[in-house]
Fold this protein.
Amino acid sequence: MKKIISVLLLSFTICFSQISFAYASDISVTLDGAKISFDVPPINVNDRVLVPFRAIGEAMGATVDWNAASREVTLARGDRYVRLMIGSATMQYGQKFSTNFFSSEIYVMDTPAQIINDRTFVPVRAIAEGLGVSVGWSVSTVTLTTQPTVPVPAVIQSKDDLIAALTDKIRSGQRDFTLTVKNYSDSVYNISLFDYFNCVDSYSAPPTMKGLDATIEYQIDYKSSYAVAGAVRRQSASGLTDDENNLYLIATAQLAAGDIGDPSMSAYDNELAVHDDMMERAFYSGMASDSLSDAFLMFMDVLGVPCETITGRDGGASASWNRVKLDSCYYLVDAAMDAQNTAKNGMLCRDYFNVTDEVMNREHQPDTNDGRVSNSVYYNYFYYNGLTVNSQAGFNALVQKAVGGKQPSLSFICVGIAPTDLDLSTIFNYYSDTFSYSINSACGVVNIGF
């Protein structure tokens, strides 16, 4: 699938300015030679054809789902699925191998899905290619063909062939393999894997010439998280180190049990499920920060959530944390700090889940600054779930609701006020038993256990 490389700057909100579009009744869409009928015609937005999502999905034999709460569209056809959010420039797509094992990648679109006149329209090319359907364009006809995907070439005859073959091998986590190249030249084929695959830790790729052709013997060492993620996709631990194998066993057990990993869930929900599952397992509370960030990264790789590791200092000690990308925004996660606080407080802590640079840098100092900014609070756990407090009255209302709902705990973030500005003794107005609490001043988070 062709990836659009340019980065689109979108607000984390899902409010839009006036959309410029035109119904394109002169445009027809065919599938394997048969014209698809729509109850409303396709539309043209910025020279991109968008069609009603349910009609195009069902025409391709896909199951379709609309989540009104999250404003997400999901289509599944055979072992392939796509999911996209209204207004977002990113679409998640991949293959589902079994109930809890699936691959996922991100496709960046220049025209997002939109709701126009109460109808949901999706970009036909992105949806079709995500579901493994080839797309063609001739005059005013979009041609969809469900023929099988052309296999990766056995013999490399162009740089594009080489990238396709490498992507196929690396996606499945293969470490040692050989590729045959016709009419080899260093200027074309001697590429750096680091420029194309950020999962590669080190590699060698010496070519052996046979006349004008060459065989390239690749030996690749992956970053630990990716090696395990590839093994999970293959459902085989072959080639893993002992440490990687231990993580593989944990990951497959959690996925098989259905604790985490559901392609029908949003990237945020999968990320939160991983975080919370890690916090609730005693195994993780004693792990070093670099091991926890590797484990978190591995799960994000498996679930198709863009993620990377950041190294630096925390209170003078070396530390590692993660940066994820949801929609078009970056967020920071420190699983190690949350694991420590969870173990210490005896309640699930999400203080450092999807926080901003401003919050993280109050106690953390990254080793380097690559210019990527984390300044959105949209997918921060507390903001996303409406757990914000900006007054004593707001605090009292949250406590009353938690006690009335018999919640075992309550966590919230203070906005515009400091946690110490609150009078926690008002809890006794609603709760007559003892309670425990912890205050994270750096994050502005209060955790209360009833």
In short: Residues 224-383 form one domain. The chain has four domains: 22-145, 155-222, 224-383, 386-449. Confidence is low (pLDDT under 50) at residues 1-19, 97-101.
